[in-house]
Design brief:
Largest sheet: 4 strands, antiparallel
Order of helices and strands: EEEEEEEE
Helix content: under 10%
Strand order of the largest sheet: 1-2-3-4
Radius of gyration: 16 Å
Number of helices: 0
């Protein structure tokens, strides 16, 4: 089974994206390393973490689109919420920041609303 990656953001040399597995949202990170010594091949490390679901829409809104955005060395999820599945009728825009408190090699703590 193939999974389509809809949104990707690059942050600090790593690719970040979300995937849905068994109705559980996962934050995925691909760390690409291109050694200066060209005799060694590039490497990629893949990590996957559980993150709290940010697909909770405000009252009277039941659909939306989420964009991953990198800004000033931070990772954000911008959620555009629609009224009645109508993409022309934007009811709210919510912004969340990924909390990477601590060592970056550890799991992110989750999305925090800003």
């Amino acid at each position: 089974m193939k999974a389509v990656i809809a949104e990707v953001a690059a942050l600090r040399g790593k690719l970040h994206f979300t995937s849905l597995e068994s109705r559980q949202e996962k934050m995925c990170i691909v760390d690409l390393d291109f050694p200066h010594d060209h005799r060694h091949p590039p490497t990629a490390e893949f990590r996957r973490f559980d993150v709290p679901d940010i697909h909770k829409f405000p009252q009277d809104m039941c659909s939306g689109t989420i964009f991953l955005v990198e800004s000033l060395e931070e990772l954000f999820a911008v959620c555009i919420c629609y009224v009645d599945f109508d993409v022309e009728n934007i009811g709210a825009v919510l912004v969340y920041k990924m909390d990477f408190s601590g060592d970056e090699s550890q799991e992110p703590l989750g999305w925090r609303r800003v």
